[in-house]
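retry 2 of 3: previous attempt timed out while embedding pyridoxal-5'-phosphate. Reduced batch size to 1 and resubmitted. Inputs unchanged:
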Amino acid sequence: MELMYASTRDAQEKVTASQAILRGLANDGGLFVPTEIPKLNVPMEQLAKMSYQETAYEVMKLFLTDFTEDELKHCINSAYDSKFDTEEIAPLVEADGAYYLELFHGSTIAFKDMALSILPYLLTTAAKKNKVKNEIVILTATSGDTGKAALAGFADVPGTRIIVFYPKNGVSPIQEKQMVTQKGANTFVVGINGNFDQAQTGVKQMFSDAALAKEMDAAGYQFSSANSINIGRLVPQIVYYVYAYAKLFDNGVIGNGEPINIVVPTGNFGNILAAFYAKNMGVPIAKLICASNENKVLYDFFSTGTYDKNREFMLTSSPSMDILISSNLERLIYRIAGNDAGKNAALMKQLTSTGKYEITPKMREQLKDFYGNYTSEKETAGVIRALYEKTGYIIDTHTAVAAGVYGKYKADTKDDATKTVIASTASPFKFTRSVMDAIDMKYDSMSDFELVDELSRIGNVTVPQAIEEIRNAKVLHDTVCDVEEMPCVVKKFLGM
Ligand SMILES: *Cc1c(COP(=O)(O)O)cnc(C)c1O
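retry 2 succeeded.
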């Protein structure tokens, strides 16, 4: 049976998995969601012995039902190969009683690689399947990590181009350097004078601009999205939660069926939604712990039932979570509205017009699986320092936000017995200055690359290849534009 994907805003719109991946966003601005969450029927004893790639196949075949076995295995094996610096792909590291699921062993040392290394293969396979003749133009807004991971994934992939917009003053120096040194004739990187939300809104507007789509088509192009709203990113992210559970079981940490908690440092709500889908597939997950930084719009939502983005936008040391509109939350809202596209569309309309909406008590009832909290800037630094001093293990700022919230969760609920996995979303080498300052302010006088070497020394970990590569790399992209100029910049790059 084919699993279909419906728009969260229009009950009439239903497409196949490959079409949903190609389109990124539905015509009405809604997000594609599977019409049901398939159940994972592989016995745990079997899952426990599977490689990451084998696990990926078992999970993804249930969601991408119009891909053949060969196609899917080709996508999986091309993505999860020696680009990752460990065969485990996503290793678990125990530190101070929690299990850190390290999702940063791919080519750009952040968790976005988990999905963006496979998306280009899913997308080009989907294009072939649907007899697409146009060149595919990936349009992406990034708060830092998506941009580089998408660039690395799509660079020189035939039949594709990629354009990345990032907030000029809203990403870390290493993140910026990683992007502006990107090679590949089909890549284009643009800094915008604005924040991430403005970049994302600009991209969304281009996606829903019918006149622009027509012009593009005439020139032999069509847009697709590498943002976490693309179902082709969400599905691969479910895999590592299944894998983590199976490995904990295999290592004797948990018994079969024993529930675990999952803590996710959250921005656009993609990663934690994948954990929610894993739970709905049957993985025994007790609480989904949603961790925010000082942009705590999700914490406020979980504690009040009102989503309100009307607030000051904070620049924090965890920039990939500096987000006031968590796009993927829409998929959860749709679901708790009883898969009612009309109800969801009305709420999203309120969000656009007034910047906020309130869900009903009945909808709130269904959020019991979630626990939300946030970690302040000061607390984040304290978490990094304390964990390092206690165990020698060094985590990045985003992961520290999650670890901080896990601490608050335990204090709040007294649940310290449930085994807990913390999604570790970036290598500390990606946010070296914030991490080293957290450990000791004496490091602040060092240059960025001196800090890299010092982090390697005190943490006893080798400098990742991704960092070595940019030490001496040349800047290849220096375009900066205002938010209003984004469509012009795109056309210019495409020679239109
Ligand atoms: C993108 C990102 C996040 C947030 O993930 P979402 O899926 O957007 O919630 C957290 N940490 C890091 C390092 C990221 O790059």
